[in-house]
């Protein structure tokens, strides 16, 4: 830790100012406050690359941080950006969105208190994966980049936002703040840019407020299940239950609330933030007729740098933006398309080079039971938002409808093709499509509001029913913390960090919250395999080896396997003993290996042992 995180705060601030310098130097057609909220987004994407390239050349994260800092400072000195003009009429709204964004990130993402890390309940699985990637770079030694849960398997996951957090971790911010602070800046920027897009689309703040509200509180008809649970369990029992009615597998409700998606999947947060920035720039250029060259160039460059952050967002932006440039007959289209394509090629080769069997397939209707069920499926999953969207098609101005129609291509594509083993992962496309679609939903609500006599009360009813499911989901994630890493996990991981080499490989169970991978930055021979499955990686051979090494029915063979598989340490804790996949032969390990750590958790009386191979 350096100066208790001050270095990390300075690096993050430098990144935001670097982004503002780029926007100022290029003189993009943005309002002052639009540039302010976009600055961290515009800065983080290239800053992560400026760290990564020296790291890939030298294997040193410190070198990457130093090079990135020097380059960002040089841009700042050369650009000499002036202070932004802050439009007072938008300031209160942006401040409110920033406050909401901080509440979501601080309360839901690895909040540390009572010696434990807590997350909002829906995030317990994703949070452990991201923390393992962050600590593998920031605390351990992950060079060349490989999966923390599968030592030696090249990391083809889009890890750059976690790599950026690893730089902050390395500079002393620790796990919680290296996740919360960049997450807060990205979420504030994302929500604010959606608001500003709505403000431009309708030429009124009310349109922007409605647009960002419909995105944040997205949800379908799941609130009917909430009413049922309220009647069955009473208010107290209802409030203690799972209020995320946007994801109820038994009823095939799978269009998860937008905020839950971007908080659970940090890669999507970065990708969607760039997506919102590109939409705003393209609207200013194509619809409002502002100067195009610099705006298209920066939007194209950021898009081209995006695949190692979030592939789904890259595909969505490239598809919709390409159609927009074609429909609006933009003569300077190549300023966007050239960098968007050419910068992405090396990343595509890196990702494709590590892929196993392709999981691309045709699946009409996404997760609808059959093509005939598609209309009812989307009505249940979107509720009144779907009806408002359809109504908006007939209400918006022609130029605005012309702007929106290319985004329908994302919805159509994701309803036909599936790109990963788990078809649910297509929700990332639909969540991206929701951002521009909310503009048309807001148009319908504004139309209702302006109707004589019954307009305002009808508007209130429609808005309430539209956002009720999403509001319940938001309340649930904010006020139902889940213990992600217990005091025992923290204690064991601290011992591992202080007493084992940074590149050590452990034999562990398949627990997603193993202290080895999640907190200490060390690697597992085979950790939680669920993530590997969704990334299309075959882990069956290693799973067989893990079972064989833990059971150790043949002592000589077990010792050979430990050596041949590069195992440095063996962890035997409650997750290993309770695994339903293998038996742990502790007698073998006690008699044949050196016991270097033996500790019993005083709270739950679980014993943790670590053996050195």
UniProtKB/TrEMBL annotation:
Keyword field: Membrane, Transmembrane, Transmembrane helix
UniProt keyword annotation of Ion transport present: no
Protein name: Glycosyltransferase RgtA/B/C/D-like domain-containing protein
Stretches that traverse the bilayer: 35-53, 60-79, 91-113, 177-197, 209-227, 247-264, 269-289, 309-328, 335-356, 376-396, 403-422, 428-449, 458-479
Origin: domain of life: Archaea
Keyword Nucleotide-binding: no
